[in-house]
């Protein structure tokens, strides 16, 4: 008889992605404890829960408490550290590196090895560079496409539009199209500039805008769930 599975949670600001260790399919729900527990009802009861979260300490404490009360099992929270699973953190204060970036680097190194450039194209776009020996050289953080567009509305008096068109880097013929094309162009050009600086490194891209950016010319390999990939490796190393 097989033992109960370990549940992996990638908690973002608005969405939770989850799967069990050993699985490849991913489930999604809104980042609320009640919604997550409801989403998990059809699934087998886990033996342990491991999570990576960027939602903030107050939210994490509430979520962990709700999960512990509902399942009566241990909940483990991944943290960024100075060195783990072959990756050395570039930060002088390693705990201040976003745990999603840390898990994505661990996942990328596990999937393709190093050297590797790791791109996460979500609400923000993060780019991390990991050398051949697993040394994290450092990284870049820039606003995601939607954040760029929203900032233009918030910080200007006359840039207004009703809705953004489909992703494009072609010149726009209306304000919304101009804003969107400018944001996509800035995002894609920034990523490609870093990738071009490291021609011997493989580049992996993950995140909600990954496919759109690749369609617009970003040179990288798609790996849709790098954070969960890294979290699974971390979980197996910690709790088996």
UniProtKB/TrEMBL annotation:
Alphabetical UniProt keywords: ATP-binding, Coenzyme A biosynthesis, Cytoplasm, Kinase, Metal-binding, Nucleotide-binding, Potassium, Transferase
Cofactor binding notes: A monovalent cation. Ammonium or potassium.
UniProt xrefs under InterPro entries: ATPase_NBD, Type_III_PanK
Enzyme superclass (EC): transferase
Reaction catalyzed: (R)-pantothenate + ATP = (R)-4'-phosphopantothenate + ADP + H(+)
Cofactor: K(+); NH4(+)
EC number: 2.7.1.33
Cited SUPFAM superfamilies: Actin-like ATPase domain (SSF53067)
GO cellular component term, pick one: cytoplasm
Keyword Nucleotide-binding: yes
Positions contributing to ATP binding: 10-17, 123
Annotated positions binding K(+): 120
Active-site residues per Swiss-Prot or TrEMBL entry: 100
Subcellular location: Cytoplasm
Sequence positions that bind substrate: 91, 98-101, 175
MF GO annotations: ATP binding; metal ion binding; pantothenate kinase activity
Broad class of the protein's primary localization: cytoplasm
Family: Belongs to the type III pantothenate kinase family.
Quaternary structure, from the entry: Homodimer.
Protein name: Type III pantothenate kinase
Lineage: Bacteria, Pseudomonadati, Pseudomonadota, Gammaproteobacteria, Cellvibrionales
